[in-house]
Amino acid sequence: MVILVINAGSSSVKFTCFDMADNKKVLATGLVERIGIEGTSMKYTNHKGDEVKGAVDVKNPTDAVKLISERLLDANHGVLKSLNEVKAIGHRVVHGAEKIKDPIIITSEVKEVIKDCFSMSPLHNPHNLNGIEACEGVLPGVPNVGVFDTAFHATMPPNAFLYGIPYNFYTENSVRRYGFHGTSHAYVSKAAATLDGRPYQSLKIVTCHLGNGGSVAAIKDGKCQDTSMGLTPLEGLVMGTRSGDVDPAVVLYLMKLKNLTADQTDNLLNKQSGVLGLAGIGSSDLRDVETAQDSGNAQCRQALEVYAYRVRKYIGAYMAALGGLDIVVFTAGVGENSATMRASIVNGLDGLGIKLDGAKNAVRSPEPRVISQEGSPVKIHVIPTNEELAIAEFTVSLVK
Ligand code: ADP
Q1: Is the distance from the beta carbon of residue 212 to the nearest atom of ligand 1 less than 6 Å?
Q2: Are residues 239 and 352 in the same domain?
Q3: pLDDT tens digits, residue range 83-126?
Q4: 140, 332, 374, 384: which is deepest, by most CB within 10 A?
Q5: Residue 213 Cα: closest atom of ligand 1
Q6: Domain check: are 119 and 242 in the same one?
Q7: How far is it, in rounded angstroms, from Cα 159 to Cα 140?
């Protein structure tokens, strides 16, 4: 069964085409980027390793989906004979608020929910919807499935999702914590249970998704109990460019002190803060900050310590929330690749039963692996995330 997965962003459309019947093989993958701005280009790679890249004339998501379809059918590098082979399209959608609790077939009602969430997710939901509508136009009759970043966190209890502000803001304005990266947290926590050999439904797991954005989730018996992101992805960890948790009064103080508008403050906290703001070397990429630290930059060392300490604090808090812990999982760009950061995060947690094996941690591998000491009461796993495959699997389960 051929499934196309689409992740439509503000200026890019990423795609992966799977043959789920052939061992979930990736037939082709790639992206169209800089859509609507100068220098629009496409990258396409098929399962034989053929790579096609270069400038393209694409003005909008519909053009992008048309071009992706043409490449999939291309006589030289294509992987399909006909678009009829595509049985369904799975879409990443960021925000579904309280109305969407599971992956769902897209209908006009679901599109209304996506629209209702525009104000809470202005940078993602409008583009996600554009991607869906582009597919409806280019591949008519093929079912579209929405897999929402917020859905996995829908099992959070009210004591975890309510803010300490007047209750009517929740009931009337839907202001509460929702959480994001849910598809990744779901995927890696299930994979961790498989690697561990114990039933998913019997485990207490903390998953640390550390990419450009970052979030931690507390999962018990296969259900999310808490996660570090909130109404928006700004809450929680210190991220690449986001501040994460700050005293809300800091926002008010800075707005008054610097005469900032709401938009300027939004930009400050989402785009200029986090590792970028703390390290002060003009990069939010942890590799650059680690390199600068290694050559003696004390401000970069401090930034990395703040980053690690925040993750460590959440792991401890979520051990308390779960009443114990079986597995800590690291995933995404930083979590999968930075042995130094993983070691720094769990530094000093031996007393909580989280015991890292330094040699295992140092091994680089694209495979799921255990990096805790033999006999460590809490296992530490590195599990490469694969949100596209997770979306394809959910899509198959809905259209089968
Ligand atoms: P996104 O959140 O955009 O999906 P990723 O999960 O791909 O991002 O993570 C990207 C981040 O991963 C980069 O900004 C970089 O900081 C970090 N990263 C990738 N490889 C390494 C590495 N070898 N060492 C440290 N950090 C890395």
Answers
A1: yes
A2: yes
A3: 999 999 999 999 999 999 999 999 999 999 999 999 989 889 99
A4: 332
A5: 2
A6: no
A7: 44
